[in-house]
Design goal:
Length: about 425
Amino acid sequence: MVRQAISMNELLTSVQDKSIVMIGESTHGTHEFYKVRAEITKELISEYGFSIVAIEGDWPDTFRINRFVKHLSNDTATQALSDFKRFPLWMWRNKVMVDFINWLHEFNKNLSIKTGVFGIDLYGINNAFGNILEILNTMNPEAANLAKQRYSCLGLRDFDSDQYAKDTYQALKDCEDEVIRQLLDIKKFINDQNNVYDDEDCLLNLHLSAQNIAAAEAYYRNLYQPGVSTWNIRDGHMMKCLNILMENERKKLKRPPKVIVWAHNSHVGDASADHRQTQHEITLGEIAKEHFEERVALIGMMTSSGSVTAADNWGDPAKYFYLNQAHPDSHAAYLARLNKGNFIAQTNTEGFQTLRLERAVGVIYRPETEIRSHYFNSSLAKRFDWLIYLEKTSALKPLDNISTWKPNLDKAMDTYPIGL
């Protein structure tokens, strides 16, 4: 049985001294997950000195948020989300996100060292090109021309990821050497400029944009290659980004920084306790635990019923789905049978050690094939340190006016309270 549930204050106290606190979610489209995650983050920032929020968003798109919350732009909160233009828009363009970055903008107002928001995913390659050329054109036009020449192999802002994956698979094209040379040159350039330019976020943007392009090139180059895990490339890139962010922040704070990560349970949970182990895949949470050991806290969030925002297929419009009731052999169904309602618990108890089905809904939901598409075996005790269970949850409302997103009026509307 699960031990007596703990309060939110007990959870916060337990993680306050950690170097990295990762907060996961079992879907990318649940309002309560976003809301609870934002509230935990506010407390960790305002009460315990966490100063980096790293999200499962692309680096260049998220950097506009960072400039807004640090008072480096004239954007409104909604405008700061405007660089998110590709699928899935709702993942970061939603009201909870607007409210959170507005809060952080106000919190940072009178601080000399401000908390930042950064993206650690690798898909934003076209905007990363733009970042690098814009910065280098200002600081060193000759270096900008060399970067443009090297990145022309990828097509610059017209990069076609699927075509590049096919071309490299057929050995028709390979831009790895040019991209790596450019990354190394940019790192050297940054080291040379540290005593000249004091706009650290500008140099950080330059470094992480180049890192983004290098990781994306490797990801798409290996997309169709047998025996290569692009998942590992992606999560490995996320960890590299965290290390770069933490080192940059350490120099500013003159002490080790503390980081909050927002990502799906699939990235946060330790892969040694789920199906990815048999596929020789690793996760961001697992890598962080190996590097930082007890200084990392992994928090998962889970629900058993309600509604969710997702799409039918990659690139399709957002839709409002009703979640299938949790499978009887799943962790969520087991937690529902405890009749505790919403609760937080540590996972180092017998009830969490049992191997059960775990549901994962990303940005696509296929309820008709849910068992095959969204469930895998796991032990929550080995995947997470803490679990937040919300019995019934509701679909995250997109910020954009998407006509396809609407509840089925033949069913009851979802108005479930958080109630933790």
